[in-house]
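Researcher: Structure prediction, please.
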Amino acid sequence: MANMHLIPYQVNEIEETSIEVPQGVQMIQAPDVWEQSNEGSGSVIAIIDTGCDMNHPDLKDQIIDGRNFTNDGNETDYGDDNGHGTHVAGTAAATAGDEGITGVAPRAKLLIIKVLDGNGSGDYQWIIDGINYATDWEGPNGEKVRAISMSLGGPEDVPELYQAVKRAIDNGIPVVCAAGNEGDDRPETDEYAFPGAYNEVIQVGAINFDREIAHFSNTNNEIDIVAPGVEIMSTYTDQKYAKLSGTSMATPHVSGALALVINIAEEQFDRKLTESELYAQLVRRTVPLGYPKSAEGNGVVALDILNQFERLFQTFNTVFK
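Model: Predicted structure follows.
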């Protein structure tokens, strides 16, 4: 069985310091719903990747637990000797102090599951074990994983991988996966990477800050949603920051968005929502961009759009009373 790999990504630049709410976080309107969603407090996002820089000032307080399934070190060594996992984790849930960057859900917690080594590759079994671990994990106060984020992929549809993904979803956990970066800039041709191409997962394509589909973003009939994935600023190894590009970078925007949506919707419904209900609530907060569905799915995440509609209707009703 072939190895699973990080979906190829591009390192645009590395910086020593950063003070900002990154443009991608702003673009999906996360800050507009932070107050309403309590910044994702109470949700745990499982980052299944290359590990995480556990000493990064913007991440160290976000990490609730972790596990290493690779051959690099023992099971408690889930540090990141690649950079990819740290970057993904920061987009989902970094918390800035006096300086640093802020992720989509800055009060959510992170479960770091290392399934890829420093070269960005790993056995399918490591990933399967990692998904099952996230599904079964319980925190010190009974916390459970509310979203799984996977910015990895392979060309093979492996039945055991599908079963692990399906089991997580059956347990009420949305599984968010990168679409892949083998795109040819033509929406009519399909490019697939697994587990992203499974119907049950939330498959994420990438756009740039001009709301254009990234030329590298895979297109296929299972794309669900798009998010910023070009020159994304986030946390990086050695307590640094970096701009990276790829559908890998779009994916944690959606995992973090789910933590915010969970708090908003479950307060409104006054109960825990199922995976399909959470997906529906996420899709309600998207805006089409005018591309074929094979490229953009339901469109780009726009977390405040329902509130904007509500304000618009209130204004409309006031004017016409």
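Model: The mean pLDDT is 93.
Researcher: Thanks, that helps.
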